[in-house]
Design goal:
The structure is a single chain. Helices cover about 45% and strands about 25% of the residues. It has about 250 residues and is of the alpha/beta class. Helix 5 links the parallel strand 4 and strand 5. Helix 2 runs antiparallel to helix 7 and helix 7 packs antiparallel against helix 8. The model has no long low-confidence stretch (mean pLDDT about 85).
């Protein structure tokens, strides 16, 4: 792909800059590799805290019975299962069918009904305009090639009065903790990935992708540029993780 000034467009893949058109396939390979061990690895890497973060996230969404929610990058179903408990009609979408297959299997084992599963690219959704009451995305936006396009699509498919919620790793501002986490994530997490999933490289990418993600004020500005109003940021652990939200009005 060539940009308007004649240069070839690049995208970040961890610390590496690659041709933008290659990112979808390379990110897809990462998640196909880790799909079977994804939730086990989340527990190992976060000490189980990701479960508390997701509970807090869904509490902020305030899902209601009968409303339509699109859970983008929802793969293994962690967020969708929580939303469905409130009686919401949840469409679980992910660009990676391997991740969706894990989620479908988990839903069957837990006898969770009422979910729709749809393989979708966040940048080019197949859904019509103003279809959903809420759009959620947890730990997925940083893997999108063009984040601005994904946000524009989120805005498009939301009804007027619809709400957007994103849970994502960010940059902690706590002195000392930031340095400790940096050492842990770069040196320990890939080794955990090697031991549990026999895949250090995929988890090295996942950590590097966090470092390349825009800091909280910059991502909030992207939400406003996409048309969202009443944008809020809720940092967790000083911003190690953050909940961003906005409304379509």
């Amino acid at each position: 792909m060539t940009s308007s000034d004649g240069t070839h467009e690049t995208a970040s893949f961890g610390y590496e800059d690659i041709p933008a058109e290659e990112k979808v396939a390379r990110v897809g390979a990462v998640f196909s590799n880790v799909a079977k061990k994804y939730d086990v690895m989340n527990d190992a890497m976060s000490g189980g805290m990701h479960r508390l973060w997701k509970d807090r996230f869904v509490a902020r969404v305030k899902p209601r019975e009968g409303e339509a929610i699109l859970d983008m990058a929802g793969g293994t179903g962690d967020i969708a299962f929580r939303l469905a408990r409130a009686g919401a009609r949840v469409t679980v979408s992910d660009i990676n069918q391997d991740m969706l297959d894990v989620g479908i299997e988990r839903a069957e084992k837990r006898d969770i009904q009422g979910l729709t599963w749809s393989c979708q690219n966040a940048e080019t959704l197949d859904f019509g305009d103003r279809v959903f009451d809420a759009y959620t995305i947890a730990f997925g936006i940083r893997n999108v090639t063009h984040i601005d396009r994904a946000l524009a699509e989120a805005h498009r498919v939301l009804k007027f009065g619809g709400r957007f919620f994103c849970l994502e790793f960010s940059t902690t501002t706590w002195p000392g903790f930031a340095q400790a986490y940096d050492l842990y994530s770069h040196h320990v997490v890939p080794q955990i990935g090697k031991m549990i999933a026999d895949d250090a490289d995929s988890y090295r990418y996942l950590i590097e992708s966090i470092r390349r993600f825009p800091p909280m004020p910059a991502f909030a500005a992207m939400l406003r540029e996409a048309g969202f109003a009443r944008v809020k940021v809720e940092p967790i652990l000083g911003g190690l993780v953050a909940i961003h939200s906005g409304w379509k009005v």
